[in-house]
Structures are given as C-alpha cells and as structure tokens.
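Minimal example, chain plus coenzyme A.
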Amino acid sequence: MVHRARRGYCDAMLKYLKHGVSHAAGGLLNLILDSPLFYNPPLQWLKAKILNSLYGARISPQTILKSGVRAIAWDNVQIEAYAYLSDDVTVHARAPVFVGAGTTISPEVFIGSGGHNPADLAVEATPVRIGRCVFVGARAVILPGVTIGDHAVIGAGAVVVNDVPSCAVCVGVPAKVVRHKEEPEEIWTVFGRKKVEEIFRGAVDEGFDS
Ligand SMILES: CC(C)(COP(=O)(O)OP(=O)(O)OC[C@H]1O[C@@H](n2cnc3c(N)ncnc32)[C@H](O)[C@@H]1OP(=O)(O)O)[C@@H](O)C(=O)NCCC(=O)NCCS
C-alpha cells in the first residue's frame, strides 16, 4: 500500500519535472529566437526552419517573425513568403491560422482561432485565414472563423468579427468597411518592393499555400 503510494508520488514528481524542463527549454528557445540575428535577413530563415522542424509549423523561410512573436500550437500555423509579423504578435492557433504571402502584421496584434462558447464556456476552435498582401494595424484583434481577403487593410485597434472582402479598408470595434482600395501592382515587403503577381506565383510554387 505504502509502496504503491510512494510510486504514485514519484510518477507525479517525474511528470511535473518533465513539464518544468520542457517549459524552461521552450522559454529559453524563445529568448534565443527573439534575437535580431533570427529575424533580420540573411539569417531569418533559421527561425522558420527551427519552428517548422521542432513544432511542425509551416512557415516559409522568406518570412520575418520579429521578437516576441508567439503561437499556441505552431503546428496549426501556416505563413507564406514575404509575410512580416512585427513585435509581440500573438497567434492563438487552437485551429489552423493561415497568413498569406506579402502580408504585414503590426505590433501586438492578436489572432485567435479558438475561444469559449458564451453559453456553456465549451472550448471552440475555428480557422482564421488572412489573405495575401494584407495590412493589419497595431493592436488589432482577429477573432475565430474570420477570413480576410487579399489586399485588405485593417485599422489599428480594430476588432475583426466578420469576414473582410478583398481590398476593403476596415476600422473600428466591431470592424466595419469604410472604403475600398485599388488592387496594387506592387507592394512594399521587408525584402524590397515586389510585384504582386510575383508574390502570388512564388507562394504557390513554394508550396506553403493551402
Ligand atoms: C486604417 C488606416 C490604414 C486608414 O488609413 P486611410 O485610408 O488613410 O483612412 P483615413 O485616415 O482617411 O480614415 C478614414 C476614416 O476612418 C477613421 N479611422 C482611420 N483609422 C482608424 C482606426 N484605426 N480606428 C478607427 N477609425 C479609424 C478616420 O477617422 C476616418 O473617419 P471619418 O471618415 O469619419 O473622418 C489607418 O488609419 C490605420 O489605422 N493605420 C494603422 C497604423 C499602424 O497600426 N501602424 C503600426 C506600425 S506599422
């Protein structure tokens, strides 16, 4: 009896120890990957490679993930080439989250594909899709199930609860379309100005598209 209790205690200790070690290792890895070495070209590809091989993410090597970019369940995260996630972007990827090629996401944006049902608080998860060449302003919140069309613009601080059409400029809480913009022929990326056609073709060729 005493022997069984002692074994149960040892198993529990071992479990907590393993959890603690893996948590600490994850924290240390995050600190290392936050270094400018890992988000500035030419070595930015290393961050994608590490997140892809350790956590099963699908991130193009031609992507900038600045310091403080964090995800829950990297294996649900897919990011195409020339996308730029600025400081402290959080991807709460309970369900798949897709970020298209050439998309720029400003600091402290929260992208959540999971939540709790208001009725009984049951955990829910619905994919989020952010199209190509989209701009998301600082501290915007993208809620579960939302699809944002290519070339859309989301204003700073917007809370996006519904789908956003391509080329729409959307602001406010809840986010509403205030105007539509022309589809550009080329856009700014951290890797230099690029033809939109080239960005779309490159993403498909690279195979990080869905
Ligand atoms: C959305 C944004 C791109 C719109 O730019 P724009 O097309 O030049 O639009 P305007 O400035 O003409 O604004 C259009 C209307 O939306 C309102 N508006 C603009 N941005 C808004 C925002 N973030 N939240 C709420 N309302 C906003 C304006 O007050 C204006 O309203 P009005 O027509 O009643 O006067 C810009 O305002 C924005 O939010 N940029 C994000 C900047 C940022 O986050 N930078 C981070 C560092 S990269």
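The chain has a mean pLDDT of 92. The chain has two domains: 1-33, 39-205.
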